[in-house]
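Whether sequence alone determines local backbone shape is best considered at the level of individual chains. Part of our work consisted of pairing the sequence of a single chain with a tokenised description of its backbone. This step matters because it turns folding into a mapping between discrete strings. For completeness, the protein is quoted in full, as a sequence line and a line of structure tokens:

_____
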Amino acid sequence: MHSRTFKFFQVLFASSCLLWASSLPANYESSKKTVVDLSVQEHYSQGQKAYQDENWEELLRHFTIIQKKYKTSSLANDALYYEALGLFNLGDPEAANNRLDQYLSVISSPKFFEETAELKFQIAEAYRKGSRRHLFGLESMPKWVRSKSDSLEIYEELMRTFPYHEITARALSAAAKVYLKQKNYRQSIESLNKLIQRFPKHHLVPDAYVELANVYLKQCKKELDNPDLLSLAEINRRKFLEQFPQHDFIAKLDIAYKEMEQVYAQALYETGRFYERRKKTNSSLIYYKNAIARFPETKAAESSQKRLVVLDPEFMISDLNV
């Protein structure tokens, strides 16, 4: 009984297979051709189609096969660029950058030279915005390592390779942001000044002036004993007005400058309070008067004036020549 049942299912399965085969399209024999059987040109064409469709996994599959199986083909070098493109769009900027480095090293006049520069910039931006790198730099390892500072290597590479290309303007702007995040104020200021001087007509220049104002502001909060920062901020503001007399961003520079004045005035006021608490009235009066004389429009100057009235009833604001 069991033998007859088993044979029945064998026949049923075979019949089903025949029916399925008869329902296949006439061109099935050609369509079932495996990826391995494709020629290098067919792989390239399929990869190009995947590129047009933004099917990055399919793109990567075809161009990886070209790179590994057809190394001597003239298309193998192009495949490295497309591999990088696929890897980047699949979320692995580190592997993408490795492929681009290979691509630039194997050919003296790359077909996708400017495209490579743009992709490298996008990789650096991914790093700057928090993309993680593989442990030990191995693509087989998980991506656990923070990589914001790694963006600087790529920005600097672009600056060296394309010193007067538009992409360097963007690299300088982005590098300034990374340096500021690291509290490396000097390098941030240097990058922004290079952008302003080297690319005066670039659309990022107004933003660079505003960024400079913000760097000076952040720096002054850390370096209260550096009197040059306020002067540098004033020079930055004056240059902006000369270059962009009608630009709306002047309001942003004014806000940053006034905040810097408040920072310095507050430091003078706090020092005055320090001496006042220690019963050193004469010393405290010097700092209060200095805050009012140098930064009369600040809240700290108002506070200083109130303390002066308490400590010196004969005090008159006109005595300070404000």
